[in-house]
């Protein structure tokens, strides 16, 4: 039997199959989802993992047992599920464990219009009700129809970013055997794009590398292919294809902060004076560039629930995170790696310069990237860092500790799930960034000893 207490996280459901997450658990969650949300109809999609089909079918049985009608979209990316929820006006559930290893699976849930369901917006109630329903079966009375939404998804994205008129581009895409291998061909069909596919075969065992582009080792094959084929750009998607990482023509990674600034500038050209959301560990260049383009930058805590909530509150047209999640008002405030990739392709294809030059204007600072330290007494480590930097910069504690100097900043915050402190530092030159990073890590290291 599954372990509901363990698999229900702050924003989604995720666990090892079948030890923590099995079909009876999925069936109970399906029934609980309908009871808690009051859904009369809902849409379900799943990724390519071997366990996804039986888990999704069990969930659907549970939902139908509570008289809900189900639209079964079958294979899809997470942003395809968001498209389905938004365009059909239905609550939705996506079966995926994103970039986690093959033995994992999980669920991402939303209300109608792709409004996310998290711990404080219904997920806890669904967990508690499911615990009461595990093992209780009932006859499915709701209907189920299968509906292919891939072509509608591709068409809708292409109405948001017009790529028909761009110059011909050579594009290498690494799908990591994940759902990008399913969605990219549909979106790119008929466009002036010469596509070189890497690992497009859907395989939830991830035989080539983990489908997590945040790990540099998973980008090596893409970087090599871009350089060897003299491509204009490389794109890497994670397992459920809601995140996208960009590689330039030299085989170099492009910071998600630079992508955030680039897309923000494009959205502000479309919506003058609009609000743009960025989390507190994106580059200082992001709010600078937003202001220069006449927009209003709003800073949030790290995490998609905070970004989506602030976007809804402010009516922001776009939001970006350091983790390569990109959110769009025109996409029901949901995140879509594919839509972000299309903006980059449009920016590249509308002129003749190489990608490194196009994104270079959006890369103003030197960043450390996220550095993790295992620390049992996180409070003591934060106290010592606060003491060491007293009087040297402005402090704020929106999310952990952020210290900002004249041309540098760092953020040190505790992980929500592990005994780790996460450090991000940035400065106008690489030497200063390294000095700040090393100083903070030295202090943290002494507490960890």
UniProtKB/TrEMBL annotation:
What CDD domains does the record point to? Answer: PMM_PGM
Which ranges carry the Alpha-D-phosphohexomutase C-terminal domain?
A: 370-441
Family matches, as InterPro entries: A-D-PHexomutase_a/b/a-I (IPR005844), A-D-PHexomutase_a/b/a-I/II/III (IPR016055), A-D-PHexomutase_a/b/a-II (IPR005845), A-D-PHexomutase_a/b/a-III (IPR005846), A-D-PHexomutase_C (IPR005843), A-D-PHexomutase_C_sf (IPR036900), Alpha-D-phosphohexomutase_SF (IPR005841)
Q: Which Pfam family name is an example for this entry?
A: PGM_PMM_III
Q: Which UniProt keywords apply?
A: Isomerase, Magnesium, Metal-binding, Phosphoprotein
According to its UniProt record, which cofactors does this protein need? Mg(2+)
Q: Which residues form the Alpha-D-phosphohexomutase alpha/beta/alpha domain?
A: 6-130, 153-251, 259-365
The similarity annotation says: Belongs to the phosphohexose mutase family.
Entry-linked PANTHER family: PHOSPHOMANNOMUTASE
State what protein this is by name. Phosphomannomutase/phosphoglucomutase
């Amino acid at each position: 039997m599954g372990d509901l207490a363990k698999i229900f996280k702050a924003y989604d459901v995720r666990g090892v199959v079948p030890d923590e997450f099995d079909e009876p658990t999925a069936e109970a969650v399906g029934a609980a989802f309908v009871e808690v949300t009051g859904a009369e109809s809902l849409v379900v999609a799943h990724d390519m993992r071997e366990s996804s089909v039986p888990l999704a079918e069990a969930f659907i049985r549970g939902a139908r047992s509570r008289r809900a009608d189900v639209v079964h979209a079958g294979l899809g990316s997470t942003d395809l599920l968001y498209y389905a929820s938004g365009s059909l006006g239905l609550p939705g559930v996506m079966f995926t464990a994103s970039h986690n290893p093959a033995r994992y699976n999980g669920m991402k849930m939303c209300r109608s219009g792709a409004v996310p369901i998290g711990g404080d917006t219904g997920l806890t109630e669904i967990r508690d009700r499911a615990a009461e329903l595990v093992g209780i079966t009932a006859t499915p009375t709701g209907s189920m129809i299968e509906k292919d939404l891939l072509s509608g998804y591709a068409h809708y994205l292409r109405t948001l970013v017009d790529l028909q008129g761009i110059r011909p581009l050579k594009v290498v895409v690494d799908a990591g055997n994940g759902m990008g291998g399913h969605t990219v061909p549909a979106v790119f069909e008929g466009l002036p794009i010469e596509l070189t596919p890497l690992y497009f075969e859907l395989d939830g065992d991830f035989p080539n590398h983990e489908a997590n582009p945040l790990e540099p080792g998973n980008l090596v094959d893409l970087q090599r292919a871009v350089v060897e084929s003299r491509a204009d750009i490389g794109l890497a998607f994670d397992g459920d294809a809601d995140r996208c990482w960009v590689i330039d023509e030299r085989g170099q990674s492009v910071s998600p902060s630079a992508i955030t600034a680039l897309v923000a500038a494009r959205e502000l050209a479309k919506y003058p004076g609009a609000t743009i959301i960025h989390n507190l560990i994106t580059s200082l260049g992001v709010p600078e560039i937003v202001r220069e383009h006449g927009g209003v930058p709003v800073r949030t805590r790290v995490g998609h629930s905070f970004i989506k909530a602030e976007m809804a509150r402010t009516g922001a047209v776009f939001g970006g995170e350091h983790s390569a999640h990109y959110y769009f008002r025109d996409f029901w405030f949901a995140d879509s790696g594919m839509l972000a990739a299309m903006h980059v392709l449009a920016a590249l294809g509308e002129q003749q310069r190489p990608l490194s030059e196009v994104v270079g204007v959006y890369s103003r600072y030197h960043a450390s990237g996220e550095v993790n330290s295992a620390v049992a007494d996180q409070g003591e480590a934060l106290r010592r860092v606060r003491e060491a930097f007293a009087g040297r910069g402005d402090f704020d504690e929106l999310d952990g500790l952020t210290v900002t100097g004249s041309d540098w900043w760092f953020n040190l915050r505790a992980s929500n799930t592990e005994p780790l402190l996460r450090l991000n530092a940035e400065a106008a030159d690489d030497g200063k960034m390294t000095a700040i990073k090393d100083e903070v890590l030295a202090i943290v290291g002494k507490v960890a000893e």
